[in-house]
Amino acid sequence: MTNLFLGFLNRSLSAAVLIFAVVLVRLAFKKAPKWLLCALWALAAVLLLCPFSIESVLSLIPSAEPVQPEIVYSAAPAITSGIPAVDAIVNPPLQAAFTPDPVQSANPLQILTWLAAWVWLGGCAVLVLYAAISALRLRLRVRTAVRLEGNVFQSEFVPSPFILGVIRPRIYLPFGLEPGAQDMVLAHERAHLKRGDQLWKPLGFLLLTIHWFNPVMWLSYVLLCRDIELACDETVIRELGCEQRADYMQALVSCSVNRRRIAACPLAFGEIGVKERVKSVMNYKKPTFWIILLAIIACIVLAVCFLTDPVASKTEEPADPAVSNTEATPGPADTAPEEPAQPTEQDDNLSAEQEAMKDELSAAEEADNSVLDELIGKAVLDHYADAVQPGQIHVESHVVLAEDRRGTETVTVYLLVLQEIYSTDGESLTLENGSYIPTAITFSLSTSSGAVTEYWEPSDGSYSDDIRAKFPPAAAEEALQNDQAYIDDLKTASFQKALEANRSAAS
Hints:
By secondary structure, this protein is α+β, with helices and mostly antiparallel strands. It has 2 domains: 2-143 and 175-309, no CATH class; 365-506. It has helices at residues 2-28, 34-49, 84-98, 108-141, 179-195, 197-210, 215-237, 242-254, 274-282, 289-306, 321-328, 345-383, 463-470, 473-481, 484-506, and strands at 55-56, 146-149, 152-155, 162-164, 170-174, 267-268, 309-310, 393-406, 410-425, 428-444, 452-456. Strand 9 (410-425) and strand 10 (428-444) form a beta hairpin. It is elongated and about 110 Å long.
């Protein structure tokens, strides 16, 4: 759920950048055909609906993934907006508020994101319910409508003409429309059907439902509905003379409805932006070729620059040490060679002491690792001891991905553990049972035996989420993505241990 929410969040942020660009182009090309403005909103729909995107050096999207999924498990949470100034403002307070406490079992940002995901899902459910209730109310209102012709119906409970339905759309008219106004209204509504607007508006509302948390999406939906109506008006008035356009404006005014809420279902004739639409009809002039061409170019530029992701930056390979040293070392012409310094007796004594200290530390570290390795092996075998039958050989192998030492009190090791149970027939071994699973074991260092205080394994139903919540971020990714890199070596090690145990038992 959390990853799904973060995926939609990142898509929504990318779409917000595109929507701002669409608004700017919309303002710059007021004289362009209105169907081109609708095409701009189609670009936003493509970005929101497409499950993948391609990279491009021409992309103007600052970041393909501003909020990465790993942020909820990170010890230092941060966003990567692609805008350094934004990151510099957001990340310090983000880290101050959500840096996890080492003693806590879960990252606070993990909990907050989980709650946000459920709030998002609840908001989606509310908007779906709103749309369903609105459609049902309209259906009930027009249940007594009578057919006028074809898919055109009349009802006494209809305040303004509108289209209802997606698969089999119907046009509903109020009684009492004058013949001239009725012809204009029908021309408008049929233009809607010809353009497929009964599909585009519900699609826009669906995207609004998914991305309701983004204020930019509400703005874009309102503008989309206005542009749909303007484009439809334009389609009709292109074929009308001046007097007929006056009749069309009169029909708009007479059928206007004062609504202040978001319409989810119908395409109503006089519902949206009547004043703006009247002005557009009055001032309509056929767009010139160059305006159309420039608007099309603007659409193409937006598609190229905002439907693509920025090219992922690659880590630069370090320069060749030999080359670097050659460049950094001055030649004979630059400086005279220096005489090597002669070591003193004191330097010799210090060097000997340092080497001895290094050897002691190395030996102590190896001894400590050996003891810890034995404790891990015993803990694993003890944990699965109930599954071993008499006469069977039980072995384990493991690889430590990370350690967490809490002073001298406890140590937690994060492992990939392979345990196997073999049956034996002479020198022959048969694998009977086994498991390979990420594991976290906590040992108490206050006792000489290194008692196990916690033996942890992920649950089947929430395997990945459990590991990400329990393991350090780097170790979690290693356990989930690169675990197969270890399995062959672990199987070989376990089988070798089983062979040695079998030989020891035989002798």
